[in-house]
Amino acid sequence: MENHTFVVGQEFPDVKAFRNAIKEAAIAQHFELRIIKSDLIRYFAKCASEGCPWRIRAVKLPNVPTFTVRSLEAYQVLRSDEVEFEVLSAERSDIVNIGTHSCSCRGWQLYGIPCSHAVAALVSCRKDVYTFTEKCFTVAGYREAYAETIHPIPERIEWRKMSEAPMDDDDDDECSKLSGHPSFVGHQDARKRNEYA
């Protein structure tokens, strides 16, 4: 089996051929296999890495040595290069780029947390999923965000309306200088120049 993909209903000549195919797939796709149950009539295994959802179940067909895949859960990861992966599921195919923190489902880009496709790709190449999470979701990011004192907003009755605020000419000139707008006096000077011109 060269492409190391499995589908529900796929058949193998016997249990030995099936076990060899599973072993080759685990080696080719760089994941550790944990065998839950394996005997002459049934086989159940899963990915040994924490958070990896890959599982497969196969059984022997009655009266023949043929083994068939009964269920296949989660994703199959195909590596394109160092940072790009194709993640296959029963419903769809997604492209994951761990270098740009992106997935074609757009979940990783929207939420800043690796989506399930990205997790499958990261686990397949034995990367730490947590290091690919946006900094704001980490404990260090949380502590940094709240390191400074945050002063509460006063009660609404303590708020002043803009019309109640004291207006000083000096403050007005200073504000207009800071905002990049000319002061009112400058407008008057310009109007006077235009009148005499």
Structural description of this entry:
This protein has 6 helices and 9 strands, in the order E-H-E-E-E-E-E-E-E-E-H-H-H-H-H. Among the domains are: 11-74; 77-145, no CATH class. It is α+β, with helices and mostly antiparallel strands. A 5-stranded antiparallel β-sheet has the order 1-5-4-3-2. Strands 6-7-8-9 form a 4-stranded antiparallel β-sheet.
Q: How would you summarize the topology of this molecule?
A:
Blueprint: E1 11-12, H1 15-28, E2 33-38, E3 42-47, E4 55-60, E5 67-73, E6 76-79, E7 84-88, E8 93-97, E9 102-103, H2 107-111, H3 116-124, H4 139-145, H5 169-179, H6 184-196
Antiparallel strand pairs: 1-5, 2-3, 3-4, 4-5, 6-7, 7-8, 8-9
Strand order of the largest sheet: 1-5-4-3-2
Individual helix count: 6
Output the helix-strand order: EHEEEEEEEEHHHHH
Q: N- to C-terminal separation?
A: 91 Å
Please tell me what the overall shape is. Answer: elongated
Question: Would you kindly provide a brief summary of this structure?
Answer:
By secondary structure, this protein is α+β, with helices and mostly antiparallel strands.
Observed structural traits:
197 residues; alpha+beta; 5-stranded antiparallel beta sheet; 4-stranded antiparallel beta sheet; 6 helices; 9 strands; 22% strand; elongated
